[in-house]
Amino acid sequence: MLSVANLTVSFGSFQAAREVAFEVREGELVVLLGANGAGKTTVFRALSGLTRADAGARIEFDDHDLANLSPRAIVDAGMSHCPEGRKLFPALSVMTNLRLGAYLCRQRAEIDRRVERMLSLFPALKDRTGDPAGALSGGQQQMVAIGRALMAEPRLLLLDEPSVSLAPKVVRQVLETVAAINRAGTMVLLAEQNAYAALEIAHRGYVLENGRLVLDGPAAELMQHDEVRRAYMGA
Amino acid sequence: MELFAQQVLNGLVTGSVYSLVALGLTLIYGTMQVPNFAHGHLYMLGAYLSYTLVTTAGLHYWAAMAVAVVALAVVGAALERLIFRPLRHAPHLNSMIAALGVMLFLEAVAQIIWGEEFRHMDSPYAGVVSVAGLLVTEHRLILLGAAALLMVGLLLFLTRTLAGSAIRATAQNAEGALLVGIDTNRVAMTTFAISAALAAVAGSLVAPISLVYPSMGSLVTLKAFAIVVLGGMGSVPGALAGGYLLALAESLGGTYISATYQDLVAFVVLALVFTFKPSGLFKEAA
Lengths: 235, 286
Ligand SMILES: Nc1ncnc2c1ncn2[C@@H]1O[C@H](COP(=O)(O)OP(=O)(O)OP(=O)(O)O)[C@@H](O)[C@H]1O
Ligand SMILES: [Mg+2]
Hints:
By secondary structure, chain A is an alpha/beta fold. Chain A has 9 helices and 10 strands. The longest helix of chain A is centred in the last third of the chain and has 16 residues, at about 170-185. Chain B has a single domain, classed as Orthogonal Bundle (ABC transporter involved in vitamin B12 uptake, BtuC), CATH 1.10.3470. Chain B has a two-stranded antiparallel ribbon with strand order 1-2. Chain B is globular, with a radius of gyration of 18 Å. The chains are: A alpha/beta (about 240), B mainly alpha (about 290). The interface of A and B includes residues 72, 87, 92, 96 and 132 of A. Magnesium ion (MG) binds next to helix 1 of chain A.
């Protein structure tokens, strides 16, 4: 279980996240909603160690205290981040991108096994393993990005806007896969603009506005919430 | 025809040296975005170390080169750790200025230790052999072979090993690399060490067939930059091919156009690339 409290991230005098507190419980898929610039990515980057949170933040994952750890130690503790913009290695093959996802696992046979699992999760990648990741379509690149994060066999997957700029049909496909990953036992924290589709697969959700959490509840409730419907579903 | 073949051979010899130096420069640029203006000076240090170890300590040529390579790897790692890493999050201009500072510093150190005069060392391979009708010194052939072997080895390392993949991954997306658990600081330090070691090999290989002096690195740095721009900043195949191409252009241009302007070829190449193909011939990183 991930439990976050008092998470503040400042860029100079600007606070992109303010005293954020939330949790992801065992088995859950939790969605973080918020408009452009609300601070979703900032929260994710602080969780995975790419950005330093201000002093006083508490980030507890299982029995580990993740605050101030390096990204490497955080991956090692069982939390993987599939970042906004994917951040793939474009000139390296799809296979190498995936294998590097298991960088901290040094057993070749185990890595082979994980690759097999990724290719059955994303069959569209099967014929493309030798191609440079940068040559794939947007949807396939997103699959590589998710696959690369899963190659570490995380207990919790941080997934930042996987559906951005994908065709609606592909969005559906990607989110269904995310739901399947969660059903298989991995906790997921998902940031999405696409509120309706995200709430459909989530157990619970939080709403972030100007760096603050303003609302939270079970997904079904948020879906009915007037404020959420007005702000994030255009209803 | 014989003149032509002779100049091609000269071009390949010089090209081996250019490619080794440019490789290091492009690796450092690719992984750290640092334009290491001091790179040719690492090559100079390598040449001096081999020279001193051979002429005063009496080491065998290859043993001297091995010591120079290890010493320069340590210097490279130290430069990364002590100078460039603290500047990683500062504006780019800072690391450029630091690189210039390192360059001036190394040149001053060389002047203090070895003085201004031109030095020369003999190769243990001074014989002349005939290859397809051309007379070549053994040392040049050894230089060609050793450089080619080293480049193949480096390519295999970069493409076939986990450490090599980590370097390429860091060059292509440093945050992506962090997120899979790669220690990008260690990658940067390793890359700097490897690059400086390559420069030491180049300097040691070239010392017996040219002169060793404190500013011998400056022109090489300029040419390596031309090559790296020609090949695409950060591109390994680009640096390899670009090094040989530039050297061939120089030696053929020097023979058939004008020897006086031989060193200008690099700048003409730079101007042409900037005008017509600013991304370089091989644009993909690493
Ligand atoms: N490195 C930075 N320096 C300064 N400001 C930043 C930095 N990174 C993010 N911000 C600011 O922090 C705020 C939150 O940005 P963030 O990227 O976290 O939002 P987001 O919710 O992920 O938005 P989106 O849906 O567009 O991805 C924005 O106003 C952004 O401009
Ligand atoms: Mg974002």
